[in-house]
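Tokens for chain A. Residues wanted.
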């Protein structure tokens, strides 16, 4: 009889220990993958009924290729920074997205590009704002991080730095796409017909910014974001994309984040850093932190958009409070691409 009691107590003890360690490991995914990569291609009013199957397929294929590019870097033991840069370069060269070749137009009919990148290992970061002749702003952001003593370079200074560091320079006309030009004309025509006080803060409800976050085999996280900003922007406006802590953040101890949406709100509420802080100080999961900031705080304040979040255990969240967000992720043996709410 005594032996049964003892055995029962030992088993009970064992079960308690297991369930406690499960709670402690709530944040760790069951099988921590050797690598993971997550991307977005912007959020906004993406209406499933209005988008043709062909268009949706074009975006899905582009996101798929982007993930394959980043995944092959990580599979071959490359760093998360290399994966982020290479993936974003592809998205910048793809005219479908509002970054690099597909960038939107300013009020004055120019393309002014912003980008940033951050290393989760040591919080080194680089960013550029308002560049007009650099083919791949994400590579310039990385050069700022690695080859200068600064974090954020803008305008002509950033372009001079790009030339000195042999980045690819193009004529501003390289960034012209008819689609984006027509969007500008449409917004301007609407503006002319509405009196100033009734104008919407954000008449173009589509955000096509691109972002990538990755975890490499050494457990290092990195994040990067690149954009043309918002159609019809004026006065050398920057959004959240080149602001570290607003549009981009990475810390191996919490997570990597890349945002897309109405930049002014993401700057005011330091969205990327806020998410990282909830994970490091409040021990929230990526999902809980994303919901708190994107689905509660930003919704309350009227800030539209979304983000992608990845922690060093390979946990992923992709919250957005708009109708849709181009997004996808890949881990060994897994790949998923989505546009709308499923
Ligand atoms: N966040 C970007 C900006 O405000 C826009 C976007 O995400 O498309 O510049």
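Reply:
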């Amino acid at each position: 009889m005594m032996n049964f009691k003892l055995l029962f107590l030992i088993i009970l003890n064992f079960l308690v220990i297991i369930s406690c360690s499960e709670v402690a490991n709530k944040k760790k995914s069951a099988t921590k993958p050797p690598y993971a990569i997550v991307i977005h291609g912007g959020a906004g009013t993406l209406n499933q009924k209005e988008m043709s199957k062909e268009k949706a397929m074009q975006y899905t294929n582009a996101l798929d290729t982007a993930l394959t590019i980043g995944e092959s870097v990580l599979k071959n033991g490359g760093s998360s920074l290399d994966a982020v840069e290479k993936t974003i370069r592809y998205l910048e060269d793809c005219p479908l997205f509002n970054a690099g070749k597909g960038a939107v137009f300013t009020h004055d009919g120019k393309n002014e590009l912003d980008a940033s990148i951050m290393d989760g290992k040591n919080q080194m970061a680089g960013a550029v704002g308002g560049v007009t002749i650099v083919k791949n702003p994400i590579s310039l952001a990385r050069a700022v991080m690695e080859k200068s003593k600064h974090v954020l370079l803008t305008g002509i200074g950033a372009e001079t730095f790009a030339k000195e560091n042999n980045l690819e320079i193009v004529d501003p006309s390289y960034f012209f796409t008819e689609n984006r030009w027509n969007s500008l004309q449409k917004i301007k025509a609407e503006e002319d017909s509405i009196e100033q006080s009734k104008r919407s803060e954000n008449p173009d409800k589509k955000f096509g910014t691109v972002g990538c976050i990755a975890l490499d085999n050494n457990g290092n996280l990195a994040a990067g974001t690149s954009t043309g900003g918002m159609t019809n922007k004026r006065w050398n406006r920057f959004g959240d994309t080149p602001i570290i802590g607003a549009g981009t953040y990475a810390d191996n101890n919490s997570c990597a984040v890349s945002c897309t949406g109405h930049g002014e709100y993401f700057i005011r509420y330091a969205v990327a850093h806020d998410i990282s802080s909830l994970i490091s100080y409040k021990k929230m999961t990526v999902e809980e932190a994303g919901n708190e900031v994107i689905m509660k705080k930003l919704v309350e304040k009227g800030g539209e958009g979304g983000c992608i979040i990845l922690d060093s255990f390979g946990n992923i969240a992709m919250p957005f409070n708009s109708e849709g967000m181009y997004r996808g992720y890949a881990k060994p043996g897994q790949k998923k691409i989505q546009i709308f709410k499923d």
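Residues 16-26 have pLDDT under 50 and may be disordered. The chain has one domain: 36-340.
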